[in-house]
Design goal:
This protein has helices at 4-28, 34-63, 73-95, 101-121. The protein is an all-alpha fold. The longest helix is centred in the middle third of the chain and has 30 residues, at 34-63.
């Protein structure tokens, strides 16, 4: 298994590459083609995941008492993934002009409930 430092270094490299790829897709491709929209959504999710995961890890480190803190990379990626999934789904709904406050709040509630169930089940 890789060390935490290696995981975060790989995550940083993937983050940079996915944001660069996302910029290329936005500026150099035709959004009317479905495959380009699919590539955009995948790159958006990966870019947000690799951006939010270190933020979640830092917040756990900063706000968890020292005696109960565990360096849990999997938990940070799960929480970053849920935040990335929320924003990617909001972008997808906006593409179809179906995003409104109620849909966003329902989606956020569902993802928060998933996180609560996962946390309640973990030891």
């Amino acid at each position: 298994m890789a060390t935490n430092r290696g995981v975060w270094a790989l995550s940083g490299m993937v983050c940079i590459l996915s944001w660069l790829g996302l910029g290329y897709v936005v500026y150099a491709t035709d959004p009317s083609q479905a495959v380009n929209r699919l590539i955009f959504m995948v790159l958006l999710f990966v870019a947000l995941l690799t951006t939010f995961s270190p933020v979640a890890h830092f917040l756990h480190f900063r706000f968890t008492p020292r005696r109960s803190y565990r360096s849990d990379v999997q938990r940070s990626f799960r929480e970053g993934g849920l935040a990335a999934l929320f924003l990617a789904l909001c972008a997808w709904l906006q593409m179809g002009q179906a995003l409104n406050w109620i849909n966003a709040l329902l989606l956020l509630s569902a993802l928060a409930l998933i996180e609560v169930f996962i946390l309640a089940r973990s030891p």
